[in-house]
Amino acid sequence: MKVEDIKNVLIAGSGTMGQQIGFQCALHNCNVVLYDINEEMLKKAMERLKRIASRLTREGRITAEQANAAMGRIRTTVDMADAARDADIVSESVPEDPKLKGRVFGQLNALCPERTIFTTNTSTLLPSMFAQETGRPGKFLAYHFHDIRMTNVVDVMPHPGTSPEYIT
Fold it and tell me: Which pTM value belongs to this model?
């Protein structure tokens, strides 16, 4: 899959980084599904996303039209099967526990299309610590996003089993 083929992004985890990654993807014309296990968490995430959009607009980094369009491309769900259905890529941002991450990816592996690429936003764990649990270690790597309020940087970190086509 080429980067231009990625249209549908699943963000697993609606915390601070999940929100920011989701907004960044939506800002770049991707359809984003923000998945979490709790409706209240998703409601808070959408409120925070509105504040992020407002801040970036106020700072002149994006226009109001871009902010509104990005917000319009984000939807939320607590239904993992619904979230996974059309995902081209998954960006996981659940708590920093390799067992939890492996379990979430194992569930997603059963639900996502075969084409789906799996990424983790971990900042403290090595992707190799739970690559096998993803069920598709060749299509798995870390995309560590930095705080979008300050920078537009993502670190790409494969593990030894990541297929080269997903690194570039």
Answer: 0.93
